[in-house]
Design goal:
The structure is a homodimer of 330-residue chains. With 330 residues, chain A is α+β, with helices and mostly antiparallel strands. In chain A, 41% of the residues lie in helices and 14% in strands.
Chain lengths: 330, 330
Amino acid sequence: MAVYTEIDDEQLEALLARYDLGTLMSCKGIAEGVENSNYLLVTDRASYILTLYERRVNRDDLPYFLGLMDHLAAKGLPCPTPLHDREGKALNEIAGRPCAIVSFLSGVWPKRPTAKHCHELGIAMAKLHLAGQDFPLQRRNALSVDGWRPLLEACDGRADGVRPGLAGELRREFDALAAAWPETPGRAGSRPLPHGVIHADLFPDNVFFVGESLSGLIDFYFACNDYFAYDLAIALNAWCFEADGAFNVTKGRQLINGYESVRPLTDGEVHTLPLFARGAALRFLLTRLYDWLNQVPGALVKPKDPLEYWKKLTFHRQVLGASAYGIERP
Amino acid sequence: MAVYTEIDDEQLEALLARYDLGTLMSCKGIAEGVENSNYLLVTDRASYILTLYERRVNRDDLPYFLGLMDHLAAKGLPCPTPLHDREGKALNEIAGRPCAIVSFLSGVWPKRPTAKHCHELGIAMAKLHLAGQDFPLQRRNALSVDGWRPLLEACDGRADGVRPGLAGELRREFDALAAAWPETPGRAGSRPLPHGVIHADLFPDNVFFVGESLSGLIDFYFACNDYFAYDLAIALNAWCFEADGAFNVTKGRQLINGYESVRPLTDGEVHTLPLFARGAALRFLLTRLYDWLNQVPGALVKPKDPLEYWKKLTFHRQVLGASAYGIERP
């Protein structure tokens, strides 16, 4: 939760004058989002979210993210629609930060996801994967295998202070995953698994529901081109473990069934799912560990416990096949 | 800016079930308010603010604050109206905290107040003072002279670390103000200045405007019974100094003229205004100094600079009469 950058009246007025949004009735910083500053704007016509992109977002990636939201919203996906100013621009600037205004989505994110929520999520994720197939821009997944090595190296000397023996375990895990990971999707000569645009961060706080109906997918700032099944593996990690660390196979099954009701998984994807689940667990373990070891005094956001993902990784390592996640194949 | 207490789905559902507010469409923590946690609730009928009262608010004071908002809103003042549940209660509980749901007010607080804003504020403050006159509950001002002494004592040993000589200056200032301060309003036998319900914290972030029209007064959690002119003195401190520390007499004049267009000041009030302005400056200097010296590691709120109020106090100490604030009397 955070608002990193305060904006003043003149700055806001100057920005809004570029758009045709009606009269400003309210502007409140909202305590959501870890990477960026977000304001809820209410005008006499509608509600909007103003996002200021802070230093952790690469400015060069913004056309991909905003273009993707435009593309997906046009295909009927319930995601924020970037507003274009009178010159047609979706990307502007305020208080020295790149910024965008997007449509406001109704809904509340589920603090305790149910199996029904997981089923709805699976459906929406598969629709996202299909809707992204003709999106023309490309963005490499900066937090796939290649991106884990520098995080690992940055944490190496201090990981044992978080958990004795962790540094060695992480090195071995990384080596095993790097050796087994399928080739970069799209590389010439490879016969890769199905791939395309993935969200790559579909945690519960990025998915809105009204009652038990999914009403919105937000926060596309990790979206990239990668394997579809890797997106599913991230969601298995993020949605299907209970607070006590147990994997809830009913939730896994509902997530996958929802997904497959829109886009059935190939045999290759089913086979690779346990590997991807391990990889996804390592990815969030490493980024959380890095943030844990590099806490900024006075930071507005409390770092998340990296060891939650150590426990998840341990679960995935003992999995024998995709049936552990609720996939039934004859 | 802060959300101190997170609430989960079940807790929120259980709370909302007590009220008749329609279907929940959105719930976002908002990055406003220093003392409490605030959520913006949107239902299919309207928007509301859910406030969780954190430890700095005395639970015994909540009936005064909520009753006052009810009273003032009923008199047409643009302040939040507490919602009553089906049993008629405005005060409930969530996540172990006392809480209330109030109506949402449109408007944006002015980051750079203008003289027009000050004029509007003066009008609204005088209306508040008049509207509160038949409010039956009483609350002593815990941050008037009696309340300054413990703050002074708590800061005494370390104040010189913030500014050399500050501890002695504060002691002398306190003694001078305590000796000159008018008797407690309402005390038997006294002939006090006009008094009644005051807001006691009308800083710009507690006053909303749509364009230059005042649309809301919020945050009544310092409201109490005290001298009306002391409320005006707080606002002179909070609204009429420029960023460079200079007092803007045009803003002061507009604030007072706005006030007097609704409720003219008595000669006694005009005479006492410089004393009250010094007192108000000392009050905010002391609370800021205390928070500055008692920073909690990992706190979500950055403490405000106490020396801003040292500079204001220095200004008020050299003032010769109320004309310095823009009051013209024949």
